[in-house]
Design brief:
This protein is an alpha/beta fold. It has 8 helices and 5 strands.
Amino acid sequence: VATCTNGKLHFEDLDPHRFEDLVYDILFRNKSWNIIENWGKSGSDGGVDIYCEDSTGQKWFCQCKRYKSISLKQTKSVVDKIINGNKNTNDCIILLVVACDISKTTSEEFKKYSKDKGFKDAEIWSSIRLEAELYNKHTDLIEKYFGYSNNKGEKEKRIIDSVKMRKEVESKLINNDILQNPQYWQKIIKD
């Protein structure tokens, strides 16, 4: 049985603003937002790279960290910075998106700390979640941000189209009087 293995996507190789753009693109596609704004590029973002409001009016604060690793202390610092940089974070959702793997303990403690600080809910997306989103839902973004296409469907389509074209050409040649006349066979074989 043949298998195909794709290498791990290197989110840490993206420029920090391009990493934010990638997360923005994924968020934009995943939910119907009333508001989705990229605040991170302006600099004075109050700890919020992407601000969203969904169709119910639920506010989301998203922070993107393109780190090779992240500690519990760093995740708590993200929460504190968002609280200190924004007027009202109570009953909001915090989403931390990181370019690395994250431990179960850090994930659970980040969620607990966020809720203790007044957030309605907290999510953390690691590199594994990002890869799953890209490979399963947004393969075009792999090409956009990493410069290569992993679209198996497109490759299969080109192969199928090529086979169809060959069959069509063969069919036309077989039905053509040229192939039915033996004196032309030698000329076709030589050419």
